[in-house]
Structure formats: C-alpha cells, structure tokens
Specification:
There is one protein chain. Helix content is 41%, strand content 11%. The protein is an alpha/beta fold and 604 residues long. Among the domains are: 109 residues, no CATH class; 257 residues, Glycogen Phosphorylase B (Rossmann fold); 30 residues, no CATH class. Strands 10-9-8-11-12-13 form a 6-stranded parallel β-sheet, with helices on both faces. A 3-stranded parallel β-sheet has the order 5-6-7, sandwiched between helices. Strands 1-2 form a two-stranded antiparallel ribbon. The chain is globular and about 70 Å long.
Length: 604
Amino acid sequence: MRLVYGRRSLGGAASSPVLIASPEGVRRDRLELYRGAVQRVYGIDLAAYDTYPAVTEPPDRRLARTLDPAGANQGLYPLQPVRLVTTADGLPWPGGAGWAGEGAVLPRVRSMLDFSGHLANPFLLELQYHTFTAPALWAATKAILSAWAERDGSDFSPRRVALFAHDWMGVPLFWAAGAAGDRLGRSVYVAHEMRLFRLLADASLFDRERLLRPALNPEGLDVSLYPLVREALASGASLNDLFPGCDGFRDIYYHRLNRQARHFERVVAVGPWVADELQLGLRPDRDVRPPVVPVGLAPGSPGIDEIEDRRQRLAAVVERYGEFSPDLIMTVLARPSVHKGPWRVLGLLNRLAERLAARNRWRLACFWMAAPRPRPTRAEIERWAGGYGWPLDHLPAPEGDLRGDETMLWANINEFNERFRRAARVFYINQYGWNAGELGALWPGEATWRDFRLGTDLEVDLPVYEPFGYAALEPYNAGAVCVLSDASGAVRHLEAQGLGDTIVVGRFTEHDLAPTEIDRRTRGRIEAAVYDQIINEVFAQLGIHPEADRRPLRAARLRRASAALRGLGWETAVTDHLWPAVEPERPLRTRLGELAGLRRGEGD
C-alpha cells in the first residue's frame, strides 16, 4: 500500500488536504476479511466485482445517432448493451483487476486521469481502487488523526469523526470503518447524483428497453423521465412498481452503491432533482426526501467597466479568426456526451443564428469548450496545431484529435460555420485551458480564462441530466444571461430562492404528454419549441428585441446578481443548508462557540 498525504492546490491561494491510496500489493487474505464483513453487515458481495460487467461508452455511440437527425448512421452503431464491456471482437469481457498469487494486479496511480485513460475497464478499476484501498485508508486516517490528537494533548476516538461520503466513492471507506468495528460520531452521505437516473436520462439501458417502455419511452430522455419521477413521487411508487421486470436494477453496481445511502445516519443531496431521485431510489427502505445542500457560488461581482474590457479581449479573438466583430458572445462548457445534450446547443445555435440573420446587423460568436479524457499532451497539441491548425480545425483520431462522438459533433459545427459564414462562428476547443501553450494554433492574445468566464454575454447549458450545474452559473455574477435546462438542479434551487427570473430556463420537461408517448420525433418537436421560448427571453434580456441600450441592461442584471449572491454563497450553503441537515439538534452558533473554545485550549 502506497499512501500520499498532502495539499492539493485549487487555484490562487486556495488548497485542500488530500489523502490518496494506491493499492499496490494489496494482500488477498486481508481483503477477504474486509469483504466478509461487508457482505455480513451490508449484504454486498465485493468478490463479485472481480469479474463484473460495467457501464462503459464505446460499444454504443448513442450521441452519434442523436446528432444525426437523418439516421444515416443507424446501421453503423447497433444498439449494444452499454453496460457490457466487450473485447475488440465484440465479445463480452469483464475487465477489472486480476490476482497474481496473493497480490492484486493493478496499474500504478500516477494521477486520477489514469482511471479514464487505462485500457482496461476504467469504471470497474475506479470502483476497485476505492474498494481495495478502503481498509488501509481507514487505518491510515485513524493513525493520522491519532497523531494529531496526541500532538494537541487529547485522546483520539472514532466517535469524534464525522465521515462525509462523497457519493458512492465514500461508501467503501464507510464500510471499512464498520468492518474495523469503529463506531463513527456521524456519517453523512452527500449525493452528487443517482447514477440509475443518469442512465435512464441518457437512454443507456438499451438492453432492457422492452422492460422500460411500459413506464417511459427511453428515446424521450429527460423529457419523458422527469414527468415520470414527479408522478412516481406523488403516487408513492417505488422502482419495482415502475419497472417490475428490472428487479430493482440490482445488477447495476453504481445503483447498488447509491442505495447504500440508507445505512448512513444522514443523507443530503446536492440538488433538488437528486433529492427526488434518492427518495424514489431508496424506497421502500427509506422514504424521506433528503434535504438539499446546494453548491455555493463564488462571491463578489466585477464592475461594468471591467466586464466591458474583458468582453473586448474575447471580441478581439473573434475578429482575428472569425473576420467579424461579434454583437453577441456566447460560451458553452459541454463535453460531447449524451447527458450534456450537445445537440440542444447546436439546435439553439442554429435557430438563434437564423433569427439574428433576419435582423441583418447582429453577428454571433460562440466559444465551445469541451473537456476531453485524457487531456491532450503538449506534444499532441504541437503536432495537431502544426499539422492542421487545431483547434481552428479538427480531424478524427488516430491521426487527429477527435475521439468517438466528437467526430459527428464537429461535422455539425463545421456545417454551421459554413452556413453562417461571417455572420456566426463556433470555436470548438476540446481542451479545458486558455493559455497560449494549450490552445495550439489559436492565439488568445491578451484574453485569459477569467475573460472567458466574465466577458461573455450568454452562457448556455442544456443537459438532460445535471445534478446542480455550477459551471453554467460562473458568469452569473458578471451579469451574463445564463441559459439552463430544467433538468439542471440549479434551476429548481434558484426558483426556490425566488430568483427564477434571474436566469433563462429551457422548460423541456413541462408538457402534458405521457412519458410513454415521447419518442425521438416528439422530443425533437418539444425541443424546437423550447429553443424559440429561450431565444425570446434572451432577446428581451439582452436588448435585442425590442432593441435597447445594452449597457444599462447589463448593469441592472449585475446589480441583481450581486444582491442574489449574498444568499447563494458558500457561507449560506453551510449555515442555512448543510448544518441544519447534518446537526439539526445543535444550533450552529452553539457549535461555533465550542470550536472557539477548542482553539483557546478549553474543553476536550
């Protein structure tokens, strides 16, 4: 076992303590003791994960079919079970770790990106890393805390530990504490998603489509899923009631791990939809809606003059490569995956460009950033930039940069750029970085990442599944118009705070159709109508129609955002949401007084 303890930089002066374990040389006999305890207490056989089929993307290519409205590529991408790992010959292959004698055979963890870049099944490897390391990680945690307590002249006990499980990744550590016979002072399951509902929202479960259809049409994605969730919660239905042939989805191990939340003393959810999904997913064992503990937004707002300066630096990039001065700058942070809904961004872009073109003088520029996995190396960036001008142009792998479904996405973006030449332009940058060395042939000039976040006019995020959606609200404090789909948890949270009118919401799930009636074409018609609804609201907020002076409009949005952020920051997230959910019996001010006493050396 290799353990690394230190601090991880989060940018600027911010950092966080981390403890990382790499399971090299894990002994089977010691792991078996842990597995036995987990099976005895929690009813899960971890040994089954050695050869367990897992969720994976490559065999399916669902996004490519979604991006191809004509269905021309339907025959190229058959509906294979996306949960099943296959060999190069298309045969089932379990993946995961093996054993050599008494030791586990796993690659070294050089960085967390190894999970996504490894040739074996990355999802199963990630699960096994968290599971295999848990006993040693808990022992190391106790040793570190005991050393700290001894240094401070106090005694250590597990009863003084509050364990916050980051979704399913914290479950194996929770198991390890129980297997060691340690009683924790507090255990809190912090749900960042309910994986089964992500799979339902992006139509991953094609292998059981026949069993799903009596409840919803999988082609409807979120448009059919969330009306079903509302209906199920209102009627008291469980997953077995909704999908009787699916045996509670027990064969999907992420769902089994999510359901372990019922063993924790407290359960909280990062967004309202996740809270609904958890309540439905934990029935009948636990039928209480968990409280929502939202993500805190960064405080502080720039001035209107600073925003204009940042916007001008972005506009200079457009003028350099798009050969026009943009009247409207739009930014998008969306990976090319089904749950991020990139076809919706394309649909909105096309309709927006059409309506702007009808107004003659309005020109649109969109910077679309997508995070690839693994991230491109400096050598790849130099080769692509020198070979074909990446990221101003793109080519499919293996010679080029595009991976999987990015090829179809770029074909659609390229078609858009040709159609609206010198009136609209999308810059597709499949790299999360905004420095000259990370942008290849695109020279950003004086523009920085902060310009990219604060200088935009319009931020768009239209996913089919989004637990909260923090990134799409990053330009909120600069008075930008933020457009989110109603599948985003942030929408319902802002509406609950009386701030629904400070964003523009694409209401894809608010309709009168039954979830079983929404096939691909019906969903497409609903989406097209929502694009016009979004654009009408965007035009009004930006002063495009009816035309108005845009600077005072932005200044007004800036003032409203600045006032709203006082109730949306991290301090409010802790005092108004987290603490009441975790320690309802002890007022926060009492606990702060106790902590102040500890700092002075009083108490235990």
